[in-house]
Write a structure and sequence with these properties.
By secondary structure, the protein is an alpha+beta fold. It has ten helices and 13 strands. The chain binds adenosine-5'-diphosphate and magnesium ion.
């Protein structure tokens, strides 16, 4: 390497800056490549319908710790998080491929357990395993899944489709997966300090499950179709609500105002966050890994979803000039940041 060669730290760009930089120089050769990098899945024009393709990789030591991660759950989660990206396009998943990297630390039985989880997810989400790759790994377990789905052309929900005055909806409850991870890490530390100790997970079952076995919200996609509601812009909540709102805002050229008292949080998530001296709302906004859906609907569609127990109307789209704002329970307005909103926490 010459002394003059430039070296830029990846951290100075961040994940999204790096993706923009490396994918920016690529052009498009095929007319049927409808949408490339930048959404939850790529969109390919198959004539009468769109096909969507998405991939996500999980690495031992980065995304999971096998000292508390059951292999069945890991296999399930690796599929589920990809199905979640298919769901976020308002599409129906059809096929998956699975790549695994293994060291000789793993037995055949261990790999079978991993694949029991993959199979369980294939059954739950009605997808076919159609291929993959198996290789050795010097750095722990790797599992990478690619999912393919289809959607009617007029139903595809792109991140850029939100418009001013749309209602912003979030499914399920948020913050649980992050809080569950805190519990698992705490129990691991206590176990390392005292290996005779049994983990105390009974009263944290819900949040631990939110971390270990997230279930992609295909049920919501089917219900929206039944109720004839077309979500306009959609994204799945993998990195944290605030970050996903920022993506919808940037790509749609709108702002969003959300209301603290409308944010969905489970009681166990709330109580556990407090136990860890964490602000529950910060967990909801920045926690990540909940794999719920965030989408906008037109005001006319509100009535059709009004009574749905698992769809929450958390705010609305505004003019882009207004930016991203959080209205607190006592009516104070704070700018919403993808990370670090806690600095504004009164
Ligand atoms: P998600 O959280 O929905 O899985 P990501 O944030 O991982 O999406 O990725 C954002 C976009 O960048 C997606 O369109 C994804 O396909 C694309 N992308 C991520 N990493 C790469 C890469 N190394 N090369 C090409 N495209 C990438
Ligand atoms: Mg996504």
């Amino acid at each position: 390497m010459s002394d003059k060669e430039q070296r830029t730290e990846i951290s100075s760009l961040g994940e999204f800056g790096l993706i923009d930089k490396i994918t920016g120089p690529f052009g498009k050769t095929h007319g049927d490549t409808f949408l490339g990098v930048g959404d939850d899945a790529a969109v390919i024009d198959r004539g009468v319908y769109f096909e969507v393709v998405t991939t996500d990789m999980m690495l031992e030591g980065i995304h999971f710790d096998l000292s508390y991660y059951p292999l069945e759950h890991l296999g399930y989660k690796a599929v589920s998080i990809n199905i979640s990206d298919v769901a976020a396009m308002n599409a129906t998943p059809k096929q998956i491929t699975v790549n695994i990297g293994l060291s000789n630390r793993f037995s055949v039985e261990a790999v079978e357990r991993l694949y029991n989880g993959v199979r369980h997810a294939c059954e739950d989400f009605k997808v076919d395993l159609v291929g993959g790759d198996t290789t050795s790994s010097a750095s722990g377990l790797v599992i990478s899944v690619t999912a393919i789905g289809t959607v009617d052309k007029d139903k595809v929900a792109l991140r850029k489709n939100a418009e001013k005055a749309d209602i912003l909806c979030a499914t399920g409850d948020l913050g649980g997966a992050f809080v569950g991870l805190q519990i698992l890490n705490r129990e691991k530390q206590e176990f390392l300090a005292n290996p005779d100790m049994q983990p105390k997970l009974d009263s944290y079952k819900f949040v631990v499950k939110r971390q270990l076995k997230p279930v992609a919200r295909m049920d919501i996609i089917h219900e929206l179709a039944e109720k004839e509601v077309a979500p306009k812009a959609m994204i799945d909540i993998s990195d944290g609500l605030a970050s996903e709102i920022m993506h919808l805002a940037q790509q749609s050229g709108v702002g969003f105002t959300i209301y603290e008292d409308k944010l969905p949080i489970d009681k166990q998530t709330y109580d556990t966050a407090v136990e860890f001296n964490l602000d529950p709302i910060t967990c909801v906004l920045n926690g990540g890994e909940d794999y719920e859906l965030l989408f906008t609907i037109s005001q006319e569609d509100h009535k059709k979803l009004e009574k749905h127990p698992d769809i929450h109307f958390i705010g609305y789209a505004t003019d882009s000039k207004q930016g991203l704002n959080l209205v607190t329970k006592n009516n104070q307005v704070f700018p919403l940041k993808a990370q670090g909103w806690q600095h504004f926490n009164p």
